[in-house]
Design a protein that fits this description.
This protein is an alpha/beta fold. It is built from eight helices and 14 strands. The chain has one domain: Metallo-beta-lactamase, Chain A, CATH 3.60.15.10. Bound molecules: zinc ion (ZN) (2 copies). One zinc ion binds next to helix 2.
């Protein structure tokens, strides 16, 4: 997994997931910070239309037309169907960017919709899931999914030679099953995500705007502790990445990390410090 994450609540959030050239959300500063890497992006998945998640679109769309790079590479932007803010932005771009050299496509998505990424033996796709954020502005989270094959439980104890013999005898379909592995799950802004929607994911990016529940005035965002609870219930396999932290906690990250370490979670927990660009290997 390789990703670049930038997130500061209310200011800007964007996450570049390089294996599939996906940008999740597009807050301001993205093009300035990624520079020519913006040409690598194939798909942009917008979680919702709040300014801190879409304010970088103007720069991204224009720089792909003007900077040094492949000006004919198409760009697809997916967003929650019914988003008022994104719809207004689409109108703006249609009126002001008549001379784009590449194809720019806007695709509305509903929970459960799938976007194919890679065909082949282990096809990959992105699946949208419902999140709860603010009233009036629809929001979505996204799973990067891979279809894999494994032996059915009743065959897993058999010696290797027997398995090989069965495969040679043309029984592969009979002894194996396919399953979907979530590789990377991005929740956008939301109150705690329903763990069933990201179950077993390798890496979960859950927002954690607040540390103390008392700081939360309206129920639109999650706390650090709620996000950790979601990751535990969802049985996250490798890592929980906490983003969208309010800058009021900027100087307390060490203390927060120490408190989280005491929980001994079965997965790694990483905090994205507000305003820092973090590269994840
Ligand atoms: Zn936000
Ligand atoms: Zn928001």
């Amino acid at each position: 997994m390789k990703a670049i994450v930038f997130s500061k609540a209310l200011y800007s959030t964007w996450v570049y997931y390089s294996p599939d050239r996906i940008l999740f959300d597009c807050g301001e500063g993205i093009s300035t910070l990624l520079e020519n890497k913006v040409f690598a992006i194939k798909h942009v998945f917008i979680s919702h239309g709040h300014a801190d998640h879409i304010s970088g679109l103007m720069g991204l769309i224009n720089i792909r037309n003007n900077a040094m790079g492949d000006h004919e590479k198409e760009l697809r932007v997916y967003y929650p169907a019914g988003s008022f803010f994104v719809s207004e932005l689409i109108t703006y771009f249609a009126r002001t960017n008549r001379n784009l050299q590449y194809e720019l496509e806007w695709i509305p998505l509903q929970p459960g919709d799938r976007v194919p990424l890679l065909p082949g033996r282990h096809p990959r796709y992105v699946e949208a899931f419902a999140t709860v954020h603010t009233r009036g502005e629809p929001s979505l989270g996204y799973n990067v999914c891979e279809v894999r094959h494994r032996l059915k439980p009743e065959y897993r104890e058999l010696p290797q030679e027997e398995i090989v013999a069965m495969v040679r005898a043309g029984k592969k379909g009979e002894i194996s099953e396919t399953y979907t592995q979530y590789l990377f799950s991005y929740g956008g802004d939301s109150v705690p995500i329903n763990p069933d929607l990201v179950r077993g994911t390798e890496v979960l990016l859950h927002e954690a705007t607040f540390v103390d529940d008392a700081d939360r005035k309206e129920y639109k965002h999650s706390t650090v502790w709620e996000a950790i609870e979601v990751a535990k219930k969802a049985e996250v396999q490798k890592e929980l990445i906490l983003f969208h932290l309010s800058s009021r906690y900027q100087w307390e990250i060490d203390k927060l990390e120490a408190r989280i370490a005491e929980l001994n979670t079965p997965f790694r927990v990483r905090i994205i410090p507000p305003g820092e660009i973090v590269e994840i290997e």
